[in-house]
């Protein structure tokens, strides 16, 4: 970050996840040498005392809070209590200790699911809390909204420079390919690949295929986070996305083509569609001077290559 000397102590919470590892790689590439990381086995961020001890010992100057319990629509709808409890614990502990230990700047990462299910599209930041949330991920959304409000409350009461960013649906290196708990894009990469190599003739797509989704490559998100840590210090939050979306059916056809599967698609109406659309308005981000670089087709090819290297 321009205003930060290269040996500033920066803590990346969640550095093993898809987002945290992308941020960690970006900071290393930019020449930051004093990076602090802990695996979840080394530091359970749900444990208040453990987080207190960690911050008192390490005294990081900057924090990227990319650690969270995350998952796709079925995971969110299945583990509703876990998504609420664990994410509230993590962000309460990290944000509070960042304040108590004089962290200069903290970035909280949320998600586009914080918006009302039927808000006007594209989603502007001011639409937050103007309507009912999407039922399948309401616990996670409530936790992330609480994180935004907590960062703002610490800015108001303690003058903390804590910022929040809301990425759209993400994919990329180190994604989660779990058959039930993953997000749609990695799930379809895995399904089409396994059908191709196993001689399958049909791939099951959850829902109707009609919902629209926007997808941002995680390395682009990391670049945006690096940019905003230098150029954004306000209450509220900023959308981070590409500003374009496509239907789940069209996404499936694109992944089918890239993977080289020649069978057919079947749509499983027993699975939820979730919110019909959640396209983000990224004009504020563009006005600040940042725009994504990796387009969807190229990104899917990169993600598929990463999948092949790690899972086959
Ligand atoms: O990515 P996804 O799980 O989450 O699902 P959301 C997006 C759409 O893809 C839904 C459909 O309409 C799914 O029914 N879909 C089709 C599939 N086939 C599949 C499949 O094999 N796996 C999955 N997972 N979906 C999440 C929120 O919502 O978005 C999280 O639940 C988070 O909290 C995340 O906010 C970014 O985009 O619907």
UniProtKB/TrEMBL annotation:
Site (Important for catalytic activity): 111, 113
Binding site for NADP(+): 14-20, 109-112, 144, 167-170, 183
Coiled-coil regions, chain positions: none
Swiss-Prot/TrEMBL keywords: Isomerase, Multifunctional enzyme, NADP, Oxidoreductase
Amino-acid positions noted as binding substrate in the UniProt annotation, renumbered to this chain: 191, 206, 213, 273
EC number: 1.1.1.271
GO molecular function (one): NADP+ binding
Superkingdom as given in the UniProt entry: Bacteria
Substrates-to-products reaction catalysed: GDP-beta-L-fucose + NADP(+) = GDP-4-dehydro-alpha-D-rhamnose + NADPH + H(+)
Pathways per UniProt: Nucleotide-sugar biosynthesis; GDP-L-fucose biosynthesis via de novo pathway; GDP-L-fucose from GDP-alpha-D-mannose: step 2/2
GO BP terms: 'de novo' GDP-L-fucose biosynthetic process
InterPro entries, sorted: Epimerase_deHydtase (IPR001509), GDP_fucose/colitose_synth (IPR028614), NAD(P)-bd_dom_sf (IPR036291)
Family: Belongs to the NAD(P)-dependent epimerase/dehydratase family. Fucose synthase subfamily.
Known function: Catalyzes the two-step NADP-dependent conversion of GDP-4-dehydro-6-deoxy-D-mannose to GDP-fucose, involving an epimerase and a reductase reaction.
Protein name: GDP-L-fucose synthase
Lineage of the organism: Bacteria, Pseudomonadati, Bacteroidota, Sphingobacteriia, Sphingobacteriales
Gene name for this UniProt entry: fcl
């Amino acid at each position: 970050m321009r205003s930060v000397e290269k040996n500033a102590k920066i803590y990346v919470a969640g550095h093993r996840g898809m987002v945290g590892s992308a941020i960690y790689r970006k900071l290393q590439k930019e020449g930051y040498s004093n990076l602090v990381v802990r695996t979840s086995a080394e530091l359970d961020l749900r444990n208040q005392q453990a987080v207190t001890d960690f911050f008192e010992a390490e005294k990081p100057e900057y924090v990227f809070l990319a650690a969270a319990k995350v998952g796709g629509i079925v995971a969110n709808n299945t583990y509703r209590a876990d998504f609420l409890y664990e994410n509230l614990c993590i962000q309460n502990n990290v944000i509070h200790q960042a304040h108590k230990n004089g962290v200069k700047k903290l970035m909280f990462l949320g998600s586009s699911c914080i918006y009302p299910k039927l808000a006007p599209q594209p989603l502007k930041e001011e639409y937050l809390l103007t309507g009912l949330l999407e039922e399948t991920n309401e616990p996670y959304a409530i936790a992330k909204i609480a994180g935004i409000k907590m960062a703002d409350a610490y800015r108001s009461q303690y003058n903390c420079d804590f910022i929040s960013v809301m990425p759209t649906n993400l994919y990329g290196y180190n994604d989660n390919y779990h058959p039930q708990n993953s997000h749609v894009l990695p799930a379809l990469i895995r399904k089409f690949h396994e059908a191709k190599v196993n001689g399958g003739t049909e791939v099951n797509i959850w829902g109707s295929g009609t919902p629209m989704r926007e997808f941002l490559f995680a390395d682009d998100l990391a670049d945006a986070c690096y940019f905003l840590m230098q150029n954004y210090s306000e209450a509220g939050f900023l959308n981070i996305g590409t500003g374009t979306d496509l239907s789940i059916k069209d996404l499936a056809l694109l992944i089918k083509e890239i993977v080289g599967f020649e069978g057919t698609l079947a749509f499983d109406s027993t699975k939820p569609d979730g919110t019909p659309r959640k396209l983000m308005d990224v004009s504020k981000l563009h006005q600040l001077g940042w725009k994504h670089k990796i387009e969807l087709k190229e990104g899917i090819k990169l993600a598929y290559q990463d999948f092949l290297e790690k899972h086959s």
